[in-house]
Protein backbone atom coordinates (compact mmCIF):
# COMPACT_ATOMS: atom_id res chain seq x y z
CA UNK A 1 0.00 0.00 0.00
CA UNK A 2 1.32 3.40 -0.96
CA UNK A 3 2.33 5.76 1.82
CA UNK A 4 0.72 9.17 2.27
CA UNK A 5 3.89 10.81 0.95
CA UNK A 6 3.85 8.62 -2.15
CA UNK A 7 0.19 9.40 -2.81
CA UNK A 8 0.88 13.10 -2.36
CA UNK A 9 3.87 12.95 -4.71
CA UNK A 10 1.68 11.32 -7.39
CA UNK A 11 -0.94 14.04 -7.06
CA UNK A 12 1.73 16.73 -7.37
CA UNK A 13 2.93 15.02 -10.55
CA UNK A 14 -0.62 15.26 -11.95
CA UNK A 15 -0.85 18.88 -10.87
CA UNK A 16 2.39 19.68 -12.71
CA UNK A 17 1.15 17.88 -15.83
CA UNK A 18 -2.01 19.98 -15.82
CA UNK A 19 0.04 23.16 -15.51
CA UNK A 20 2.40 22.04 -18.25
CA UNK A 21 -0.61 21.66 -20.55
CA UNK A 22 -1.62 25.25 -19.81
CA UNK A 23 -4.26 24.47 -17.21
CA UNK A 24 -4.75 26.14 -13.84
CA UNK A 25 -5.55 23.68 -11.02
CA UNK A 26 -6.70 26.58 -8.82
CA UNK A 27 -8.53 29.06 -11.08
CA UNK A 28 -9.78 32.29 -9.59
CA UNK A 29 -13.36 31.46 -10.57
CA UNK A 30 -15.31 28.40 -11.65
CA UNK A 31 -15.66 28.21 -15.43
CA UNK A 32 -19.45 28.26 -15.20
CA UNK A 33 -21.49 29.68 -12.30
CA UNK A 34 -23.43 27.07 -10.33
CA UNK A 35 -27.14 27.08 -11.15
CA UNK A 36 -28.39 24.71 -8.43
CA UNK A 37 -27.32 22.76 -5.37
CA UNK A 38 -27.31 18.99 -5.63
CA UNK A 39 -30.18 18.30 -3.24
CA UNK A 40 -32.45 20.57 -5.28
CA UNK A 41 -31.90 18.36 -8.34
CA UNK A 42 -32.21 15.04 -6.48
CA UNK A 43 -35.33 16.08 -4.57
CA UNK A 44 -37.07 17.50 -7.64
CA UNK A 45 -36.05 15.16 -10.45
CA UNK A 46 -39.32 15.43 -12.35
CA UNK A 47 -38.95 19.19 -12.47
CA UNK A 48 -35.37 19.07 -13.77
CA UNK A 49 -35.36 15.96 -15.99
CA UNK A 50 -33.77 16.79 -19.33
CA UNK A 51 -32.81 20.30 -18.29
CA UNK A 52 -29.31 21.71 -18.44
CA UNK A 53 -27.74 22.55 -15.06
CA UNK A 54 -24.32 23.45 -13.70
CA UNK A 55 -23.19 21.93 -10.40
CA UNK A 56 -20.04 22.14 -8.30
CA UNK A 57 -18.64 19.79 -5.68
CA UNK A 58 -15.90 17.57 -4.32
CA UNK A 59 -15.19 14.26 -6.04
CA UNK A 60 -15.87 11.36 -3.68
CA UNK A 61 -15.54 8.53 -6.20
CA UNK A 62 -14.37 7.84 -9.76
CA UNK A 63 -15.04 4.74 -11.89
CA UNK A 64 -13.86 4.48 -15.52
CA UNK A 65 -14.86 1.77 -17.99
CA UNK A 66 -13.22 2.36 -21.35
CA UNK A 67 -15.08 5.22 -23.06
CA UNK A 68 -17.53 5.87 -20.23
CA UNK A 69 -16.99 6.94 -16.63
CA UNK A 70 -18.94 7.67 -13.47
CA UNK A 71 -17.94 10.32 -10.96
CA UNK A 72 -19.75 10.99 -7.69
CA UNK A 73 -19.53 14.55 -6.41
CA UNK A 74 -20.73 16.05 -3.14
CA UNK A 75 -21.64 19.59 -2.20
CA UNK A 76 -22.98 20.81 1.16
CA UNK A 77 -26.46 19.50 0.42
CA UNK A 78 -25.79 15.99 -0.90
CA UNK A 79 -24.28 13.73 -3.57
CA UNK A 80 -25.03 13.05 -7.23
CA UNK A 81 -23.55 10.87 -9.96
CA UNK A 82 -21.96 12.32 -13.08
CA UNK A 83 -22.18 10.18 -16.22
CA UNK A 84 -19.42 10.81 -18.75
CA UNK A 85 -19.57 9.36 -22.26
CA UNK A 86 -16.79 9.82 -24.79
CA UNK A 87 -19.33 10.73 -27.48
CA UNK A 88 -21.08 13.46 -25.52
CA UNK A 89 -18.39 15.20 -23.47
CA UNK A 90 -16.02 17.75 -24.94
CA UNK A 91 -12.63 16.10 -25.29
CA UNK A 92 -8.97 16.41 -26.03
CA UNK A 93 -7.96 19.58 -24.20
CA UNK A 94 -9.02 18.81 -20.66
CA UNK A 95 -5.64 19.21 -19.03
CA UNK A 96 -5.49 22.70 -20.47
CA UNK A 97 -9.03 23.34 -19.25
CA UNK A 98 -9.96 25.02 -22.52
CA UNK A 99 -12.95 22.83 -23.39
CA UNK A 100 -13.02 20.94 -20.14
CA UNK A 101 -11.74 17.49 -19.19
CA UNK A 102 -12.32 14.64 -21.60
CA UNK A 103 -12.54 10.93 -20.78
CA UNK A 104 -8.84 10.52 -21.49
CA UNK A 105 -8.03 13.25 -18.95
CA UNK A 106 -9.76 11.64 -15.98
CA UNK A 107 -6.45 10.02 -15.00
CA UNK A 108 -5.44 13.48 -13.79
CA UNK A 109 -8.36 13.70 -11.35
CA UNK A 110 -8.53 12.23 -7.85
CA UNK A 111 -11.03 11.83 -5.05
CA UNK A 112 -11.01 15.06 -3.11
CA UNK A 113 -10.66 17.32 -6.16
CA UNK A 114 -13.30 19.99 -6.70
CA UNK A 115 -14.95 20.31 -10.10
CA UNK A 116 -17.71 22.19 -11.87
CA UNK A 117 -19.83 20.35 -14.40
CA UNK A 118 -22.52 21.24 -16.91
CA UNK A 119 -24.99 18.78 -18.41
CA UNK A 120 -28.55 17.43 -18.56
CA UNK A 121 -30.37 15.81 -15.67
CA UNK A 122 -31.10 12.14 -16.48
CA UNK A 123 -31.67 8.74 -14.96
CA UNK A 124 -29.30 5.94 -15.90
CA UNK A 125 -30.45 2.45 -16.88
CA UNK A 126 -30.14 1.47 -13.22
CA UNK A 127 -32.50 4.27 -12.26
CA UNK A 128 -29.93 6.54 -10.60
CA UNK A 129 -30.41 10.28 -10.92
CA UNK A 130 -27.35 11.60 -12.75
CA UNK A 131 -25.92 14.41 -14.84
CA UNK A 132 -25.09 13.61 -18.48
CA UNK A 133 -21.87 15.64 -18.52
CA UNK A 134 -21.16 18.00 -21.40
CA UNK A 135 -18.31 19.89 -19.73
CA UNK A 136 -16.17 19.16 -16.70
CA UNK A 137 -13.59 21.55 -15.22
CA UNK A 138 -11.15 21.15 -12.34
CA UNK A 139 -11.49 24.08 -9.94
CA UNK A 140 -9.28 22.90 -7.05
CA UNK A 141 -6.76 20.05 -6.91
CA UNK A 142 -6.37 18.14 -3.64
CA UNK A 143 -2.88 16.95 -2.73
CA UNK A 144 -3.83 14.58 0.07
CA UNK A 145 -6.39 11.79 -0.23
CA UNK A 146 -9.40 12.16 2.03
CA UNK A 147 -9.55 9.16 4.38
CA UNK A 148 -12.73 7.15 4.83
CA UNK A 149 -14.31 5.31 7.73
CA UNK A 150 -13.05 2.15 6.06
CA UNK A 151 -9.53 3.57 6.28
CA UNK A 152 -9.96 3.63 10.05
CA UNK A 153 -10.25 7.37 10.60
CA UNK A 154 -11.69 6.85 14.07
CA UNK A 155 -8.84 7.91 16.36
CA UNK A 156 -10.29 10.61 18.61
CA UNK A 157 -7.09 12.68 18.76
CA UNK A 158 -6.77 12.64 14.97
CA UNK A 159 -10.42 13.54 14.51
CA UNK A 160 -10.21 16.54 16.85
CA UNK A 161 -6.90 17.71 15.41
CA UNK A 162 -8.13 17.60 11.78
CA UNK A 163 -11.77 18.49 12.20
CA UNK A 164 -12.02 19.52 8.54
CA UNK A 165 -11.28 15.90 7.67
CA UNK A 166 -13.54 14.56 10.41
CA UNK A 167 -16.51 16.49 9.02
CA UNK A 168 -15.89 15.14 5.52
CA UNK A 169 -15.59 11.55 6.70
CA UNK A 170 -18.28 11.71 9.40
CA UNK A 171 -21.14 13.80 8.06
CA UNK A 172 -23.02 13.38 11.34
CA UNK A 173 -20.30 15.48 12.99
CA UNK A 174 -20.86 18.24 10.46
CA UNK A 175 -24.61 18.08 11.09
CA UNK A 176 -23.94 18.47 14.82
CA UNK A 177 -22.50 21.90 14.18
CA UNK A 178 -25.46 22.82 12.01
CA UNK A 179 -27.56 22.10 15.11
CA UNK A 180 -25.15 24.12 17.24
CA UNK A 181 -25.73 27.08 14.93
CA UNK A 182 -29.50 26.58 15.22
CA UNK A 183 -29.13 26.37 19.01
CA UNK A 184 -27.55 29.79 19.29
CA UNK A 185 -29.82 31.29 16.64
CA UNK A 186 -32.87 30.02 18.55
CA UNK A 187 -31.43 31.54 21.73
CA UNK A 188 -30.98 34.88 19.99
CA UNK A 189 -34.44 34.71 18.39
CA UNK A 190 -36.18 33.98 21.71
CA UNK A 191 -34.49 36.90 23.41
CA UNK A 192 -35.20 39.26 20.51
CA UNK A 193 -38.85 38.21 20.52
CA UNK A 194 -39.04 39.08 24.21
CA UNK A 195 -37.73 42.62 23.92
CA UNK A 196 -34.03 42.05 24.64
CA UNK A 197 -31.30 44.01 22.88
CA UNK A 198 -28.01 42.34 21.97
CA UNK A 199 -25.01 44.45 22.97
CA UNK A 200 -21.48 43.08 22.77
CA UNK A 201 -19.26 43.62 25.80
CA UNK A 202 -15.44 43.82 25.97
CA UNK A 203 -13.32 40.69 25.89
CA UNK A 204 -10.32 42.52 27.37
CA UNK A 205 -10.95 43.82 30.90
CA UNK A 206 -8.97 45.55 33.63
CA UNK A 207 -10.78 43.44 36.22
CA UNK A 208 -11.97 39.89 35.58
CA UNK A 209 -15.32 39.72 37.33
CA UNK A 210 -18.71 38.09 37.34
CA UNK A 211 -17.63 34.53 38.17
CA UNK A 212 -15.34 32.34 40.25
CA UNK A 213 -12.60 31.53 37.74
CA UNK A 214 -8.90 31.95 37.09
CA UNK A 215 -8.48 34.35 34.14
CA UNK A 216 -6.02 34.41 31.25
CA UNK A 217 -3.70 37.43 31.26
CA UNK A 218 -2.49 39.36 28.22
CA UNK A 219 -0.66 42.64 27.66
CA UNK A 220 -1.83 45.64 25.66
CA UNK A 221 1.21 47.39 24.22
CA UNK A 222 -0.56 50.66 23.40
CA UNK A 223 -1.51 51.21 27.06
CA UNK A 224 1.43 49.25 28.49
CA UNK A 225 -0.94 47.48 30.88
CA UNK A 226 -1.99 43.92 31.52
CA UNK A 227 -5.56 42.96 30.73
CA UNK A 228 -7.62 39.88 31.49
CA UNK A 229 -9.63 37.89 28.98
CA UNK A 230 -13.17 38.04 30.28
CA UNK A 231 -14.47 35.19 32.41
CA UNK A 232 -18.05 36.48 32.24
CA UNK A 233 -20.15 39.14 30.54
CA UNK A 234 -21.99 39.91 33.79
CA UNK A 235 -20.58 43.16 35.13
CA UNK A 236 -20.52 45.06 31.78
CA UNK A 237 -24.10 43.99 31.06
CA UNK A 238 -25.23 45.16 34.50
CA UNK A 239 -23.52 48.47 33.80
CA UNK A 240 -25.79 48.71 30.76
CA UNK A 241 -28.81 48.17 33.02
CA UNK A 242 -27.45 51.04 35.12
CA UNK A 243 -27.16 53.04 31.90
CA UNK A 244 -30.91 52.78 31.30
CA UNK A 245 -31.33 49.67 29.18
CA UNK A 246 -34.01 47.34 30.55
CA UNK A 247 -33.34 44.05 28.73
CA UNK A 248 -29.91 43.24 27.32
CA UNK A 249 -27.91 40.16 26.36
CA UNK A 250 -24.57 39.15 24.91
CA UNK A 251 -23.55 35.94 23.13
CA UNK A 252 -19.84 35.40 22.63
CA UNK A 253 -16.64 33.73 23.79
CA UNK A 254 -15.32 33.78 27.32
CA UNK A 255 -12.14 32.33 28.77
CA UNK A 256 -11.35 30.51 31.99
CA UNK A 257 -7.86 29.24 32.69
CA UNK A 258 -8.97 25.86 33.95
CA UNK A 259 -8.59 22.21 33.02
CA UNK A 260 -10.44 20.36 30.27
CA UNK A 261 -13.32 18.15 31.39
CA UNK A 262 -16.32 16.62 29.69
CA UNK A 263 -18.26 19.72 30.81
CA UNK A 264 -15.65 22.50 30.62
CA UNK A 265 -13.37 24.09 28.06
CA UNK A 266 -11.02 27.02 28.77
CA UNK A 267 -12.60 28.80 25.77
CA UNK A 268 -16.32 28.46 25.13
CA UNK A 269 -19.37 30.40 23.98
CA UNK A 270 -21.54 31.92 26.70
CA UNK A 271 -24.80 33.83 26.77
CA UNK A 272 -25.97 36.16 29.53
CA UNK A 273 -29.16 38.18 29.71
CA UNK A 274 -30.31 40.82 32.22
CA UNK A 275 -33.85 42.11 32.70
CA UNK A 276 -34.63 45.16 34.82
CA UNK A 277 -37.62 44.99 37.18
CA UNK A 278 -37.54 41.17 37.20
CA UNK A 279 -36.65 38.95 40.14
CA UNK A 280 -35.54 35.32 40.29
CA UNK A 281 -39.12 34.01 40.07
CA UNK A 282 -39.58 35.84 36.77
CA UNK A 283 -36.23 34.42 35.69
CA UNK A 284 -37.19 30.83 36.48
CA UNK A 285 -40.38 30.98 34.41
CA UNK A 286 -38.54 32.67 31.54
CA UNK A 287 -35.81 30.01 31.68
CA UNK A 288 -38.34 27.18 31.41
CA UNK A 289 -39.88 28.78 28.34
CA UNK A 290 -36.52 29.62 26.76
CA UNK A 291 -35.01 26.14 27.16
CA UNK A 292 -38.08 24.49 25.64
CA UNK A 293 -38.13 26.96 22.75
CA UNK A 294 -34.45 26.29 22.00
CA UNK A 295 -35.03 22.52 22.13
CA UNK A 296 -37.99 22.82 19.75
CA UNK A 297 -36.04 24.87 17.20
CA UNK A 298 -32.82 22.85 17.44
CA UNK A 299 -33.95 19.24 17.87
CA UNK A 300 -37.74 19.36 17.54
CA UNK A 301 -38.36 17.52 20.81
CA UNK A 302 -38.35 17.84 24.61
CA UNK A 303 -37.13 14.33 25.52
CA UNK A 304 -33.43 13.49 25.35
CA UNK A 305 -31.14 10.56 26.05
CA UNK A 306 -27.86 12.00 27.32
CA UNK A 307 -24.34 10.70 26.80
CA UNK A 308 -24.50 8.65 30.01
CA UNK A 309 -27.84 7.11 28.93
CA UNK A 310 -29.78 9.30 31.39
CA UNK A 311 -33.19 10.32 30.08
CA UNK A 312 -34.42 13.86 30.66
CA UNK A 313 -37.76 15.40 29.75
CA UNK A 314 -37.98 19.17 29.50
CA UNK A 315 -41.73 18.91 30.04
CA UNK A 316 -44.72 20.49 28.39
CA UNK A 317 -45.04 24.21 27.82
CA UNK A 318 -46.34 25.88 30.96
CA UNK A 319 -45.12 23.21 33.37
CA UNK A 320 -42.88 24.34 36.22
CA UNK A 321 -39.75 22.53 37.30
CA UNK A 322 -39.48 21.36 40.93
CA UNK A 323 -37.09 23.15 43.32
CA UNK A 324 -34.49 21.54 45.55
CA UNK A 325 -32.67 23.19 48.47
CA UNK A 326 -28.87 23.40 48.58
CA UNK A 327 -28.98 23.64 52.36
CA UNK A 328 -31.12 20.52 52.69
CA UNK A 329 -29.04 18.52 50.20
CA UNK A 330 -25.80 19.18 52.11
CA UNK A 331 -27.51 18.43 55.42
CA UNK A 332 -29.18 15.22 54.23
CA UNK A 333 -26.16 13.82 52.39
CA UNK A 334 -23.27 14.94 54.61
CA UNK A 335 -24.85 15.89 57.97
CA UNK A 336 -23.40 19.39 57.62
CA UNK A 337 -25.12 22.63 58.63
CA UNK A 338 -23.76 25.02 55.99
CA UNK A 339 -24.20 27.97 58.36
CA UNK A 340 -22.48 26.32 61.32
CA UNK A 341 -19.49 24.35 60.12
CA UNK A 342 -15.70 24.55 60.00
CA UNK A 343 -13.14 24.03 57.28
CA UNK A 344 -11.94 20.97 59.20
CA UNK A 345 -15.41 19.40 59.16
CA UNK A 346 -15.81 20.10 55.45
CA UNK A 347 -12.33 18.74 54.67
CA UNK A 348 -13.14 15.55 56.57
CA UNK A 349 -16.28 15.01 54.50
CA UNK A 350 -14.28 15.62 51.32
CA UNK A 351 -11.80 12.93 52.33
CA UNK A 352 -14.57 10.49 53.29
CA UNK A 353 -16.10 10.94 49.85
CA UNK A 354 -12.80 10.57 47.96
CA UNK A 355 -12.84 14.22 46.88
CA UNK A 356 -9.68 16.28 46.52
CA UNK A 357 -8.69 18.49 49.43
CA UNK A 358 -6.53 21.45 48.41
CA UNK A 359 -4.51 23.78 50.60
CA UNK A 360 -6.46 26.79 49.36
CA UNK A 361 -9.89 25.25 49.93
CA UNK A 362 -12.31 27.41 51.87
CA UNK A 363 -15.62 26.35 53.38
CA UNK A 364 -17.34 27.67 50.25
CA UNK A 365 -15.04 25.72 47.90
CA UNK A 366 -15.42 22.55 49.95
CA UNK A 367 -19.21 22.75 50.07
CA UNK A 368 -19.30 23.32 46.32
CA UNK A 369 -17.28 20.12 45.76
CA UNK A 370 -19.62 18.15 48.03
CA UNK A 371 -22.65 19.50 46.18
CA UNK A 372 -21.19 18.59 42.79
CA UNK A 373 -20.82 14.97 43.88
CA UNK A 374 -24.55 14.82 44.69
CA UNK A 375 -25.44 16.82 41.59
CA UNK A 376 -24.18 14.02 39.35
CA UNK A 377 -27.03 11.83 40.59
CA UNK A 378 -29.82 14.32 39.76
CA UNK A 379 -31.27 13.92 36.23
CA UNK A 380 -33.55 16.98 36.44
CA UNK A 381 -34.82 19.22 35.13
CA UNK A 382 -35.14 21.05 38.42
CA UNK A 383 -34.00 24.27 39.98
CA UNK A 384 -31.42 24.34 42.76
CA UNK A 385 -32.35 27.09 45.25
CA UNK A 386 -31.50 28.14 48.83
CA UNK A 387 -27.87 28.79 47.93
CA UNK A 388 -26.03 30.59 50.77
CA UNK A 389 -25.02 34.19 50.18
CA UNK A 390 -21.36 33.39 50.86
CA UNK A 391 -21.44 31.17 47.75
CA UNK A 392 -22.78 33.94 45.52
CA UNK A 393 -21.24 37.41 45.98
CA UNK A 394 -23.41 39.04 43.30
CA UNK A 395 -26.94 37.90 44.25
CA UNK A 396 -29.61 39.47 46.43
CA UNK A 397 -30.55 38.00 49.79
CA UNK A 398 -33.86 36.25 50.30
CA UNK A 399 -36.37 38.22 52.37
CA UNK A 400 -37.35 35.10 54.38
CA UNK A 401 -33.73 34.30 55.31
CA UNK A 402 -30.93 36.76 54.63
CA UNK A 403 -28.36 33.96 54.81
CA UNK A 404 -29.73 32.66 51.49
CA UNK A 405 -29.45 34.20 48.03
CA UNK A 406 -32.16 34.60 45.41
CA UNK A 407 -30.23 32.34 43.05
CA UNK A 408 -31.37 29.38 40.96
CA UNK A 409 -29.37 26.89 38.93
CA UNK A 410 -31.07 24.72 36.30
CA UNK A 411 -29.98 21.11 36.92
CA UNK A 412 -30.07 18.82 33.90
CA UNK A 413 -28.40 15.44 33.53
CA UNK A 414 -26.33 15.85 36.67
CA UNK A 415 -24.86 19.21 35.74
CA UNK A 416 -25.70 22.93 35.97
CA UNK A 417 -27.14 24.09 32.67
CA UNK A 418 -27.46 27.70 33.83
CA UNK A 419 -26.91 30.02 36.76
CA UNK A 420 -29.19 32.98 37.48
CA UNK A 421 -30.30 35.24 40.31
CA UNK A 422 -31.83 38.47 41.46
CA UNK A 423 -28.92 40.85 41.09
CA UNK A 424 -27.47 42.58 44.11
CA UNK A 425 -27.95 46.33 43.62
CA UNK A 426 -26.98 47.55 47.12
CA UNK A 427 -23.56 49.22 46.63
CA UNK A 428 -22.56 49.00 50.30
CA UNK A 429 -23.44 45.30 50.54
CA UNK A 430 -21.70 44.64 47.22
CA UNK A 431 -18.51 46.35 48.37
CA UNK A 432 -18.44 44.27 51.56
CA UNK A 433 -18.81 41.07 49.56
CA UNK A 434 -16.09 42.15 47.12
CA UNK A 435 -13.76 42.83 50.06
CA UNK A 436 -14.44 39.33 51.44
CA UNK A 437 -13.75 37.83 47.99
CA UNK A 438 -10.52 39.82 47.72
CA UNK A 439 -9.48 38.49 51.13
CA UNK A 440 -9.96 34.92 49.86
CA UNK A 441 -8.01 35.80 46.73
CA UNK A 442 -5.15 37.23 48.74
CA UNK A 443 -5.12 34.00 50.76
CA UNK A 444 -4.42 32.00 47.60
CA UNK A 445 -7.85 31.33 46.06
CA UNK A 446 -7.17 32.24 42.43
CA UNK A 447 -10.84 31.77 41.51
CA UNK A 448 -12.21 34.23 44.06
CA UNK A 449 -13.62 37.43 42.57
CA UNK A 450 -11.56 40.56 42.17
CA UNK A 451 -12.57 43.84 43.74
CA UNK A 452 -14.17 45.95 41.00
CA UNK A 453 -14.48 49.43 42.48
CA UNK A 454 -15.81 50.89 39.21
CA UNK A 455 -18.77 48.48 39.39
CA UNK A 456 -19.47 49.58 42.97
CA UNK A 457 -19.37 53.17 41.76
CA UNK A 458 -21.95 52.34 39.08
CA UNK A 459 -24.23 50.86 41.76
CA UNK A 460 -23.93 54.06 43.75
CA UNK A 461 -25.46 55.91 40.81
CA UNK A 462 -28.28 53.39 40.99
CA UNK A 463 -29.33 50.15 39.27
CA UNK A 464 -32.96 48.97 39.28
CA UNK A 465 -34.00 45.54 40.59
CA UNK A 466 -32.75 43.09 37.97
CA UNK A 467 -32.64 39.37 37.22
CA UNK A 468 -29.66 37.99 35.36
CA UNK A 469 -29.02 34.64 33.68
CA UNK A 470 -25.94 32.89 32.29
CA UNK A 471 -25.52 29.71 30.26
CA UNK A 472 -22.95 28.28 27.87
CA UNK A 473 -22.31 25.73 25.16
CA UNK A 474 -22.72 23.21 27.97
CA UNK A 475 -26.50 23.18 27.50
CA UNK A 476 -25.97 22.26 23.84
CA UNK A 477 -23.38 19.58 24.67
CA UNK A 478 -25.71 18.13 27.26
CA UNK A 479 -28.79 17.81 25.03
CA UNK A 480 -26.69 16.79 22.02
CA UNK A 481 -25.23 13.99 24.13
CA UNK A 482 -21.54 14.76 23.54
CA UNK A 483 -18.53 15.84 25.56
CA UNK A 484 -17.24 19.40 25.51
CA UNK A 485 -14.44 18.73 23.00
CA UNK A 486 -16.77 16.83 20.69
CA UNK A 487 -19.25 19.71 20.94
CA UNK A 488 -17.08 22.46 19.41
CA UNK A 489 -15.65 22.53 15.88
CA UNK A 490 -12.01 23.20 16.85
CA UNK A 491 -11.06 22.42 20.46
CA UNK A 492 -7.67 23.58 21.72
CA UNK A 493 -5.03 20.85 21.65
CA UNK A 494 -1.34 20.76 22.40
CA UNK A 495 0.54 21.84 19.28
CA UNK A 496 1.77 18.86 17.30
CA UNK A 497 3.03 18.22 13.75
CA UNK A 498 2.83 14.64 12.48
CA UNK A 499 5.81 12.82 11.06
CA UNK A 500 4.52 12.84 7.47
CA UNK A 501 4.20 16.63 7.48
CA UNK A 502 7.63 16.98 9.07
CA UNK A 503 9.07 14.86 6.29
CA UNK A 504 7.33 16.88 3.57
CA UNK A 505 8.08 20.40 4.79
CA UNK A 506 11.39 19.80 6.56
CA UNK A 507 13.09 22.96 7.80
CA UNK A 508 9.99 25.10 7.17
CA UNK A 509 8.28 23.84 10.34
CA UNK A 510 11.25 23.59 12.68
CA UNK A 511 10.21 26.75 14.45
CA UNK A 512 6.76 25.40 15.30
CA UNK A 513 7.91 23.02 18.05
Largest sheet: 8 strands, mixed
Provide the residue-averaged pLDDT: 90
Domains, number: 2
CATH homologous superfamily label of the largest domain: Bira Bifunctional Protein, Domain 2
Give the neighbour order of strands across the main sheet: 6-10-11-20-19-18-15-14
Number of helices: 15
Which CATH class of the largest domain applies here? Alpha Beta
CATH topology of the largest domain: BirA Bifunctional Protein, domain 2
- Which percent band covers the strand fraction? 15-25%
Please state the second-level CATH architecture of the largest domain.
2-Layer Sandwich
Extended strand count: 20
Summarize the structure.
The chain is of the alpha+beta class.
Structure in words:
The structure is a single chain. This protein is an alpha+beta fold and 513 residues long. The chain folds into 2 domains: 4-140, Nucleic acid-binding proteins (OB fold (Dihydrolipoamide Acetyltransferase, E2P)); 168-487, 2-Layer Sandwich (BirA Bifunctional Protein, domain 2), CATH 3.30.930. Helix content is 32%, strand content 24%. It has helices spanning 4-20, 38-43, 45-48, 156-161, 163-169, 171-193, 234-242, 280-298, 326-334, 343-352, 363-375, 427-442, 453-461, 473-480, 499-505, and strands spanning 52-65, 68-75, 78-85, 114-123, 129-140, 197-198, 204-205, 217-220, 225-229, 247-255, 267-276, 303-305, 311-313, 323-325, 382-385, 387-388, 404-405, 407-412, 415-422, 466-472. An 8-stranded mixed β-sheet has the order 6-10-11-20-19-18-15-14, sandwiched between helices. Strands 1-2-3-5-4 form a 5-stranded mixed barrel. A hairpin with a 2-residue loop joins β1 (52-65) and β2. The chain is elongated, with a radius of gyration of 29 Å.
Amino acid sequence: MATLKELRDERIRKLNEIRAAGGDPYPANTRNPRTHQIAEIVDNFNKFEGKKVTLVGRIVGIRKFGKIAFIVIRDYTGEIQLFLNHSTISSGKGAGQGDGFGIEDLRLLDSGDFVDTTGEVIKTKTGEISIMVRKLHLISKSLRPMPTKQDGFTNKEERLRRRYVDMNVNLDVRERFVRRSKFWQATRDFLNQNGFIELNTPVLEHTAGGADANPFVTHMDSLDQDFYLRISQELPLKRLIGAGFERVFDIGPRFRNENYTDEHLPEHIAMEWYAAYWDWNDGMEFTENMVRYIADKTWGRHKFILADETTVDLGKDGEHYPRISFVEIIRDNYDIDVFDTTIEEVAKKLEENNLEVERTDSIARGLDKLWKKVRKTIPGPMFLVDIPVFLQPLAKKQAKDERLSEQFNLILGGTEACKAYSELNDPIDQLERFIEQQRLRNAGDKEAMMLDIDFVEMLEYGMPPTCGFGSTDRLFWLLEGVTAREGVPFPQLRREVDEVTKGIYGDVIKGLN
